[in-house]
Amino acid sequence: MTGGRRNLVLVHGAWHGPWCWELLVPELESRGWAVSAVDLPSTWGEPETGMHDDARAVREHLAAIDGPVTVLAHSYGGLPATEGAGPNTERIIYLAAHLLKEGESLVAPLGGPWFPADAEFAPGAEPLEAYYHDVPADWARKAVGLLRAQSAKAFTEELTRASWRTIPSALIVCDDDRSMPEMFIERAVTERMAAVVRHLPGGHSPFLARPRELAELIDEVTAALPGTSQVSPLWTS
């Protein structure tokens, strides 16, 4: 990943895998990005794995890349991206993703946990409605068939660091998101956890519903964010 190309690492959300980026990757590559994806171990069917294992996978993946990296994290993937961001992480883009503080887990703000720590979660009764209501029907059906069990431990382990405090970060809000609780988005915006906030129409999975628009927005957001060596207050909406 050298020769002047920009490095972008993709971090998927709960129940998903690197397959979810299939339509987005060629759009990004056509814009000059060198793209790679992390496969989070908490979705491998091993209940003992958690968010810190996922963060380790992110950290190791980033360490293998020569040069500065932009990280794009979706949904739950915002947690291991926040925890695992490495010294060469130049920017983080949170795509319909969780921005939390040190000492917080994903379910704590929701009053959890309310399940056994060694449980595994299925993707829910209505994944089409929750994740893919605006995705083309053929891809929506394919995506539902590719979803994997998710370890509950990933939702209960607490962050030890909040990289968005020191790494320039952006939040992309999906305006018809039927999966992400509004409280997380409202809190991130109100407390200005992200330097740049942008909006996309549609639901929780724009990488399948509108990959070209998402790739264009990633370019725009990247240009709006300072590099880590140029951190300064910045807020747009």
Task: Please tell me about this protein's structure.
The chain has 237 residues and is of the alpha/beta class. Strand 3, helix 3 and strand 4 form a beta-alpha-beta unit. The longest helix is centred in the C-terminal third of the chain and has 14 residues. The C terminus is likely disordered. The chain has one domain: Alpha/Beta hydrolase fold, catalytic domain (Rossmann fold, 3-Layer(aba) Sandwich), CATH 3.40.50. Strands 2-1-3-4-7-8 form a six-stranded parallel beta sheet, sandwiched between helices. Helix 2 packs across helix 3. The two termini are 32 Å apart.
Quick one: CATH superfamily?
Alpha/Beta hydrolase fold, catalytic domain
Low-pLDDT parts are 229-237
Total individual domains: 1
Based on helices, strands and strand pairing, what is the structural class? alpha/beta
CATH class: Alpha Beta
CA radius of gyration? 16 Å
What's a quick, concise take on this entry?
By secondary structure, the chain is of the alpha/beta class.
